[in-house]
Structure formats: C-alpha cells, structure tokens
Amino acid sequence: MSDLLVQCKLYVLHSVFNHSWGIRTVINLQIPGEHASCGPPLTKSGFTYDPNVFMANDIYYYNFAWPDYGEASLSGLLDMAKVISFALQEGRVAIHCHAGLGRTGVLIACYLVYSLRIRANDAIRLVRKKRPRSVQMSGQILCVQQFEHYLLPQTIVFSTKEPLMLTKDRKTSEFTLRQYLYRQRAVLHGVEERAFKLLPKIVYCICERLLKLCGCHQTCGLDVKIRNRPFYKTFLVYKLKQAKETGPQSSDEFFPNQVTALPMVEWRDPIEEAIDRNLESVSRITGSTNGGSIPALNVHEAFITDYENLPDDKQKYLKQLRTDINQMRDAISKLDKEDDPHVLTGLLFEWLEGLKQPVLDREDLSTIIGRCKDVNTCIVSLEMEDVILIEYLLRFVIRLRPLAAHKKIDIIKRLIAALTHQTVSINGKILPVKDFPKLREGTCSQVINFMLRLVVEIQKDMVKPGRDDTDVIVQPRRLRIKAWK
C-alpha cells in the first residue's frame, strides 16, 4: 500500500506540478514540526511531505522558517523576494505556510512591492483580490508597509533634490556614488548583483547601448559582458587596488600644490590614429563603418551638446524617462531600444551630475595633481568605486571607433566635468551649462593627462598573455609617453 502511495505522489508531481501547472519551485514558510497535531501526520522532515521528493523530480525547494504569528526581518523578506524573482525565471512558484493566508500573503505582497514598485496597500489589495482573507492581522499589514518604506527608497536610480512619489523624504532622494552602490546591491540579485557590485548598472546600460548603436560593443578585445565572474575583476585598477591590500607600498613624493598647464600626453599609436581618421572621414559619408546604425561621430556630437538648449519635447521626454526608471523596475529596459544618442548621453550626465557629491572631489583632484605621473600610485590612493567607474568610462572611450584622438579627448573632458561637478571648455564652449564652478585650466590639464596615461596602461594590460576576458588578442605596440605640442 505504501508503494502505491509513493507512485501516486510521483504521478501527481509529474502530471500536475510539471505539466499541468508548470510549477518549478516550491517555497515553504513553515518551521519543521509546526502544528504537528493539525492535519495529516508529519514525515521525518517535520512537514506533511518529504522535500526530497520534489528535488528528486527537478523541482526547486526552499524552506524559509518563519514562525506562525511571528515577524520576519525586512532584510529576510528582501532575500525571499529575490529568491522568488530568480525562481520565476524557471517557471511558476508555489508558496505555502500552514493555512496559506498569513505568512504566504505577506510574502507575496512584499514580492509585488519589490517587483512592481507599488505601494504596500495596493499590493495587499491585489493579493486579497486573488486570495480572499489573506494578510489577516494588523501586524502583518504593518510588516508589508514597513517593507515598502525599507525597499522603495533604495530603488531610486536618478538622484534628485525634489521629493519623489516613492519617498517623500528628500534625504533618501539624494545619494553619493557609494550610497547608490550599496542600495543597488540590496535591490539586484543573482548574476547582476555580482556584476554590478562596484559599478552603477544605469551607467553600464547607457554606455553599452551607445556602443551597440555604433557597432562598437565588441571591439578592441575590451567588450564588457555580464558573466558569472564579475567583469570589473579584470580591470587594471581592481588588480592594482587588490595588490595594494596584500603587498607593501613604497613611499611616494606628493606635490599637491604644483598645478601648471601641461601639454597633452601622446597616447595613441600614429598608425592607429591615421586609420581611425580615414575611417571617420568615410563614416561622414556612409554612416557607421562597424555595422551599427549611427557613426561614432554622432556620439561625439551628443557628448559636446548643450543640453539646456535641447528642444522642449526632448527635454520633456528625458524627464519622463528618468521618472519611469525611478518608479518602475523594468523601465530601464527601454534603454535597449533607445536610438537617440542625445537622450542616452543626457541620461548619463543627469546621473553623474545629479549625485549628491562628485565622484572626484577636491581631495581626489589634489591626489591626481600630486601623483598624476605615477598612474599606479595615484589609483591606489583613490577609492575603489571611483576608479572602477573611471576605468569603465575610459574603456567606453577606447571602444568608441572610428574617432580621431582629439574627439576622444573632447569626450574625456566632458566626462571629467561630470565626474568633478565643474565646467570645462570644449571647443570654445563651457560645458555643462549649470551652476557649477569652473575647473581651472592647470587642474584640467593634469586630470586629462592622468586619464590618458591610464588609457595607455589599460591598453598595455589588455594585451598581456593569459587574459580570459579578451575576445580579440591585439599585438602589443611600443607606446611612448611624450609631450604633444
């Protein structure tokens, strides 16, 4: 008789769970041994069924022990919501507690807050509409409301001084780079959580879309893909920072007050520069030379555009897009279909220039000025999050081809302005047109030279043998550093 019951259970698993309902994951919120005298007898597992039966039939099983009538921590609820989000990628999810009303209803409501960015009361109403009498007690309602206040401020992408619909507290609407990365880690899960531990996802999505429009997203052996291994661990600055933590550091001379205008560093191979200039000339007539929909020249033009003078309809569209990304989880996917480089670069600058504090503050600029000739020493003196972002942006500039060297320097200048929250002169125009102080010419020259030296070091590191992140191995060239008159 027992063998017959086992066969019946297996039949139910295969026919009902897998085929009829498409359930691929079971989440159990009970504590082993809970309510032992209520309902069918318990198995050795402490539940009325054996979880091993599910796992043996390729159905994922999770047990989050949550006491009946008890409270779950907010971080614990967030972890459960992330598990549900991951599990739904495989198929449907079955969630249960004892009666399937209290704890189950709370978790589903919290997941709706997490996935749809809706208010707690709206989530509870939606759950009760599908499952009457769910989320029964006032304490359970309060739990969902507290989860909303805990989570939604962390989902804000674009910093703003204005109170948002998701949070009325202006303090939570503004954040620094480090605060944003902390919040981002709390919201993302799985591969994305690891990949974007030290890099803002919004910056990655914008830059990769720009490169894809130009057909440059797989060039120079520098393409950055989301893999199981975080791509930033292959960055030069990451390896230098890690080496600093494990090895002794030599003393370095530091001259923070020596600010003079310097000639630009020569950072490109003459042959490579000549090729890019020729291809750039061709792209003016034929469009993109890399199979993209636009030439890299269009991206350069977007970078040096005065966004205060954009047409009203485009400014309104930019504002609406920022609002959507702040309030809807999947709105960031709109960037994958955006074809206007002015919109994409506008979003990039809004994010960088909207931070509560600049990525490169005065102390960082002082460090760069004093140590700009020694790139390695300068890098290890800066914060990890700052240099990871800087290297990613420089890799973006390297990959943007074909584009002459002076145009790439224009883009680097505009990025420096956004990173420092100061204005710079580009081709006679002061950018950005905002209430920022002007970056002194000598300081700007030092920072540009530091960036160009870092570009050279990145290119040298790229061609080292044994690199597992490069798709194209580029033959090393002799790179010279000398004054560019």
TrEMBL record:
<dbReference type="InterPro" id="IPR050561">
    <property type="entry name" value="PTP"/>
</dbReference>
<dbReference type="InterPro" id="IPR000340">
    <property type="entry name" value="Dual-sp_phosphatase_cat-dom"/>
</dbReference>
<dbReference type="GO" id="GO:0009653">
    <property type="term" value="P:anatomical structure morphogenesis"/>
</dbReference>
<protein>
    <recommendedName>
        <fullName>Protein tyrosine phosphatase domain-containing protein 1</fullName>
    </recommendedName>
</protein>
<dbReference type="Pfam" id="PF00782">
    <property type="entry name" value="DSPc"/>
</dbReference>
<dbReference type="GO" id="GO:0004725">
    <property type="term" value="F:protein tyrosine phosphatase activity"/>
</dbReference>
<dbReference type="InterPro" id="IPR003595">
    <property type="entry name" value="Tyr_Pase_cat"/>
</dbReference>
<dbReference type="InterPro" id="IPR029021">
    <property type="entry name" value="Prot-tyrosine_phosphatase-like"/>
</dbReference>
<feature type="domain" description="Tyrosine-protein phosphatase">
    <location>
        <begin position="1"/>
        <end position="153"/>
    </location>
</feature>
<dbReference type="InterPro" id="IPR000387">
    <property type="entry name" value="Tyr_Pase_dom"/>
</dbReference>
<feature type="domain" description="Tyrosine-protein phosphatase">
    <location>
        <begin position="60"/>
        <end position="160"/>
    </location>
</feature>
<feature type="domain" description="Tyrosine specific protein phosphatases">
    <location>
        <begin position="75"/>
        <end position="142"/>
    </location>
</feature>
<keyword id="KW-0904">Protein phosphatase</keyword>
<dbReference type="InterPro" id="IPR016130">
    <property type="entry name" value="Tyr_Pase_AS"/>
</dbReference>
<dbReference type="GO" id="GO:0048666">
    <property type="term" value="P:neuron development"/>
</dbReference>
<keyword id="KW-0378">Hydrolase</keyword>
<dbReference type="InterPro" id="IPR000242">
    <property type="entry name" value="PTP_cat"/>
</dbReference>
<dbReference type="InterPro" id="IPR020422">
    <property type="entry name" value="TYR_PHOSPHATASE_DUAL_dom"/>
</dbReference>
